[in-house]
Amino acid sequence: MSAGTGRRRSTGxxxxxxxxxxxxxGTRSGAGSRPDARRPGRRTPxxxxxxxxxxxxxxxxxxxxxxxxxxxxxxxxxxxxxQWLEGRAEIARLAAESTAYDERIADLQEQLERQSxxxxxxxxxxxxxxxxxxxDRLVVVVDGEAAEGDAGTLPxxxxxxxxxxxxxxxxxxxxxxx
Length: 178
Prior knowledge:
By secondary structure, the protein is mostly helical. The protein has helices at residues 61-115, 118-129, 165-177; strands at 141-142, 145-146. It has a two-stranded antiparallel sheet. The longest helix has 55 residues, at 61-115.
């Protein structure tokens, strides 16, 4: 058998079906064959079962299998992709939170440096706690009017005799009314 004729190459083993029948002379060499002549036992050429104008089906078996594999792949990868996207969002949120904490740390360090200054501490004590250094004069404003008397003295008592509770009640109602 030659490889140029389009047939299979010989493996060196005898064919199992050809061992019992004789080979007619001249069939392998191509000496007695004519291109147009039909040999007995040859099949006739196949004629298409469909007319040539018939359309192909919209979905072939391969297309259905391919689409099915794509759907399976997308369903398989949907969970990990979603988790990856959520992880990226979490990383972005944590980075923004870290930046906010860094700014807060910088503000607190600046406040700590300010509070370590003795001049700032004295100024805050005067403003918030009404501390007075020796030699300073303190003026306290009550209801928009200046209080009478010296600083550190108590006002004079109006009446030292106690009144009964009902007179105190009626007096407070009269003061609130008038």
